[in-house]
Structures are given as C-alpha cells and as structure tokens.
Design brief:
Largest sheet: 6 strands, mixed
CATH topology of the largest domain: D-Maltodextrin-Binding Protein, domain 2
Distance between the termini: 27 Å
Number of strands: 12
CATH architecture of the largest domain: 3-Layer(aba) Sandwich
Shape: elongated
Helix content: 25-40%
C-alpha cells in the first residue's frame, strides 16, 4: 500500500479532517439541540408567504428548507427539526442579530451597511426596484413620478434607492410610508396613492395575488438592483460555510431549476443574469 493511499484512509477513517471537524458556535448549538430556526416573511410572494393556514411557502422558504436538509447531512444527524418563525420587514434583521432565528429566508437585499450587523449567504436571487400603479394611471416610467404620491416601506433598501433615483433625476414626489406590502397595496387599491414601490417580483406577486389583479401594472423601468441573500448572524463562519455548501450544491444541480419552476416558472425562464448567478456560485467542494 502506497503512503498516499494510507494517508487517505487515515484521513477518511481516523482523523478529524477539515470537512468533518466538530462545528463551532451556532452550528454546534444546532447540532446539540437538533433544531434549526428559520425566519420567513408572511406576505412577500412568491418568495416568502403564508400559503393558507400559516403554512410558509415560496422560493426563499424552499431554498432554506433545502439548506436545512443539507446542514442535517453535514452534521451527520438522523433528524433535524425545522422551526419556521414568522417575521416582518421591520424585525427580520433584528431577529437574526438577536438569535431569534438562525437564518432569515425572505427578500432581504445584501448591502454593505447591513453587513455591519448581520452576515449573508451566497446570493439567492437578483431583482430590481420599481413601482406598482393602477392600470388607469398614465405613469409609465420613473420620470412620470414627478408630483405623484408614492408609498414605500421605511427601512427597506427600496426607500433609499427610490429617494436616490428621484434626486438623480431632479424629480419632486410625495413619498409616504406604508407599514407593510399589504398596506401599500391597500392604499393603492383605495386610490390614496399613485404607486407603491418595492422589488419587481414582489410587486408582481402582490398584484397577481390580489382580487383586482387586472387593475394593476408595473412601470417599464427599474430604479435599483437588489441582490437577495439569506441573512445569517455575524461572526459565525461555520454556519455560513454550511449554508453556502448547501446552496452551492443546489446551484450545481438541476434542483435549482425545479425550485425556480415551482415558484417563479409562470414568469418564464431565469434571466441571463440569474442564470449566471447560479452558474458562478456553484462553487466546487
């Protein structure tokens, strides 16, 4: 037997090799308790929402379920109980930062300022900010927002991106606060605002899911780029690695196409940008 073969067998059977070393931090807690807590948004279809009877569903939720199963396998556990915790746009980051959940599975945009308090996985999607308007509106592009009343959820990346887009174009608009996506849609339905700003696919999901789906449309222009990622606690490299291993394996396989088709398939095939995101992040083991 050659020395190389002997070393390989020793690593595989006897030694705590890097891939099999004991986890640290939050990942160690997950292993010891046999529980992983996933946060989700109740009203951000098609990414994260309640699908009747408080049953979490959506593209981001499914990614997190797959990641949880990958973590179970990596930890060598026979079972890993998944607890899904309902969050909202206002408390999602604090829930991760304060340990209420281990991973947040919604529509959170990865930004450098947010990374001062939380961490992020590999990117899971890329979207753009735009505005939902009523069909009878003459508003078609960002320039048409001049003098209009636009609602946005405060504290979101959309709020800052919208303000920057208006300033860049020298447009004056009345930007008001909405407490949630549901409230923004209700204000638009009631004619109290001219448009509701958020991420394009979130707005599309809201519009399609509303009773008056044919009453709304989206602007033909985006005002921002929104790279989504799963939100993780800072200072937890073992958890981040375990999550990224799960995502990278999904991206290397046909499973990501199945997940996309299930939740986003009615929108067509993944864009060239999203397909590139999957391809480039299929990081080899």
């Amino acid at each position: 037997m050659s020395r190389l073969v002997a070393a390989f067998i020793a690593c595989a059977l006897l030694l705590p090799c890097a891939h099999a070393r004991e986890p640290q931090g939050v990942l160690a807690d997950i292993k010891s308790t046999g529980v992983i807590r996933l946060g989700y948004l109740g009203a951000s279809p098609p990414f994260s929402f309640d699908q009747g009877g408080n049953k979490p569903a959506g593209y981001s939720v499914e990614l997190c379920r797959r990641v949880a199963e990958a973590i179970r396998t990596q930890l060598g556990l026979a079972a890993l109980r998944t607890e899904l915790v309902k969050l909202d746009l206002a408390n999602r980051l604090a829930a991760v930062r304060d340990g209420k959940v281990h991973i947040e599975c919604g529509t959170t945009t990865w930004t450098l300022s947010r990374q001062e308090s939380v961490d992020f996985s590999l990117m899971t999607f890329v979207d753009g900010g735009t505005v939902l308007v009523r069909n009878d509106s003459e508003t078609l592009r960002i320039a048409d927002l001049k003098g209009k009343r636009i609602a946005v959820v405060p504290g979101t990346t959309t709020e800052g991106a919208l303000a920057a887009a208006l300033k860049r174009r020298g447009l004056q608009a009345d930007v008001v606060s909405a407490g949630s996506h549901a409230e923004g849609l209700a204000l638009l339905e009631a004619g109290k605002i001219d448009g509701y700003a958020s991420d394009r696919l979130v707005l599309l999901g809201l519009g399609l899911g509303s009773k008056g789906a044919n009453s709304f449309r989206l602007l033909d222009e985006d005002f921002s780029v929104e790279p989504y990622a799963l939100t993780l606690p800072r200072g937890e490299p073992d958890l981040r690695l375990a999550v990224n291993r799960g995502l990278a394996r999904l991206y290397r396989s046909a499973d990501i196409e199945t997940i996309f088709s299930e939740w986003l398939g009615e929108l067509g095939r993944p864009s060239m940008l999203l397909a590139a995101l999957y391809y480039l992040q299929g990081i080899p083991e």
